[in-house]
From TrEMBL:
Record's bilayer topology term: Multi-pass membrane protein
Entry GO terms, CC: plasma membrane
UniProt xrefs under InterPro entries: NrfD-like
Lineage top rank: taxon: Archaea
Name of the protein described by the UniProt record: Dehydrogenase
Compartments reported by the entry: Cell membrane
Family membership noted in the UniProt record: Belongs to the NrfD family.
Keyword flag Lyase: no
Length: 440
């Protein structure tokens, strides 16, 4: 099935590039405001060290050296992986319904990977450590260092996604050049350097194979593999250890990514009157996927809870009991469950569908998945097999510095889309080309 975008012309496609509205300025102000708040707190961290986050050593925050920074890192990486999986599936599986949002998913991947990298940068304390410690040790320590694996995964996926995106952009920029601003001619010249229409078929094959590699790598090696392996292969951490972490991480990634795509697509549709370009059928389809991935996420959470409290080893049982006694955990589960129920309800009763409610549910899911990942990290450290933290007072509470970093990365994503939407079409030309040919 394909989306009917008959009547949508190329002017509609480049409308974000050609218009400059008060809404755009307001969004720009919000993005800079969020980034500014984060930079204000980050300067304090640079001046005084990680002590301002209570993550400076093993004895602070109830024995938790990892907290919101690492939870948000996992969250952003998951959003990135889930976003590019959707875009790759559109090409590999012929899911033409979602073609209008495929590039938005690719751009979300680039933005989310950038934010994940930011959390690595700020969590190592001093930025110069990446140059003096991480990069020199990368070739010899990558096989057993979690930090090296993180950097490797993000770098590999960033290169894949950027290549994937660059190849498809050349086609659009070449054919829409007369509608793009002349002031950006140097940028477009770089993007289309050496381009001829003869390369289109070759590029299509290249993009297909990159998409195939992404589909294989994401669930098996990246957010279904490497990232959860960093936790699940540590038997000393009862709350982390186990084979369920791979599929659990992947389900959270897909759930979060679909939520992010819904929010971004709805924002562009509202801001630029793209009701025909991104019709309700796209959002209704995304709602079904959101419901399905939420169901998988909740099912895997149930698996962890049941196996953690029924005849489990003492430390795992204790970690599970603490988790289910934490109100925030049930808030996270409840938000995801609510979104799942709404998504399935709109399938049974289409009259219940409302794009504003769907966006609200997507925001709730993003908060819920972030909370679950932070609790996963923190409680895994607090309830280990050994007594390193015995007698350590206090409990972990995210500091304003950490919270500002999450807000700042959200601002980075908003700013990224605001800037990119003024340079290139954020919806592929292919999304409307077939209908133009039919009309002709």
């Amino acid at each position: 099935m394909s989306v009917d975008v008959t009547g949508v012309d190329r002017e509609t496609l480049v409308r974000p590039i050609q218009t400059f509205t008060k809404r755009y300025l307001a969004a720009l102000a919000v993005a800079f405001g969020l980034i500014g708040v984060w930079l204000f707190f980050y300067v304090q961290q640079l001046q005084h060290g990680l002590i301002v986050t209570n993550l400076a050593d093993w004895g602070s925050g109830g024995g938790v050296p990892w907290g919101l920074y690492i939870g948000a890192f996992i969250w952003w990486v998951g959003i990135a992986h889930g976003g590019i999986i959707l875009s790759a599936a559109v090409r590999l599986l012929g899911m033409d319904t979602y073609q209008p949002v495929a590039r938005l998913a690719e751009l979300l991947t680039i933005a989310a990977l950038t934010c994940a990298g930011v959390f690595i940068l700020i969590h190592v304390g001093r930025p110069d450590r990446l140059v003096t410690s991480v990069l020199p040790a990368w070739p010899t320590r990558v096989q057993w260092s979690p930090l090296m694996w993180d950097v490797t995964v993000i770098t590999a996926y960033f290169v894949l996604t950027a290549t994937y995106l660059a190849l498809t952009i050349r086609y659009d920029v070449h054919r829409l050049r007369d509608r793009l601003p002349n002031v950006l001619e140097p940028v477009y010249r770089v993007i289309t350097v050496g381009y001829t229409e003869k390369e289109d078929q070759v590029v299509e094959r290249m993009v297909w194979w990159i998409a195939f590699a992404i589909i294989i790598m994401a669930p098996l090696l990246l957010h279904g593999g490497v990232i959860p392996w960093l936790f699940s292969l540590l038997p000393s951490m009862a709350g982390w250890h186990g084979g369920v972490q791979g599929p659990s991480f992947l389900s959270i990634a897909l759930t979060s990514a679909v939520s992010g795509i819904i929010i971004i697509s709805a924002a562009f549709r509202y801001a630029y009157g793209w009701d025909e370009l991104i019709p309700d059928t796209v959002f209704q389809g995304l709602a079904k996927w959101l419901g399905f991935f939420s169901l998988i996420f909740l099912w895997l959470q149930l698996q962890q809870v049941i196996t953690g409290i029924f005849a489990a080893p003492t430390t795992l049982q204790h970690a599970t009991e603490v988790k289910i006694a934490t109100p925030l955990y049930w808030v996270a589960i409840g938000l995801v469950a609510l979104a799942m129920l709404y998504a399935f309800a709109t399938s049974l009763r289409p009259e219940l569908y409302d794009i504003r409610v769907l966006v609200g549910m997507s925001v709730a899911v993003l908060f819920g998945t972030l909370a679950e990942k932070v609790l996963f990290v923190v409680e895994g450290l607090q309830h280990a097999h050994f007594d390193l933290y015995a007698g350590v007072p206090g409990a972990y509470i995210p500091s304003p510095v950490e919270i500002s970093a999450v807000l700042g990365t959200v601002g980075i994503v908003v700013l990224f889309f605001l800037v990119v939407s003024k340079v290139i079409p954020v919806v592929e030309l292919h999304a409307i080309e077939d209908h133009e040919e039919v009309d002709a």
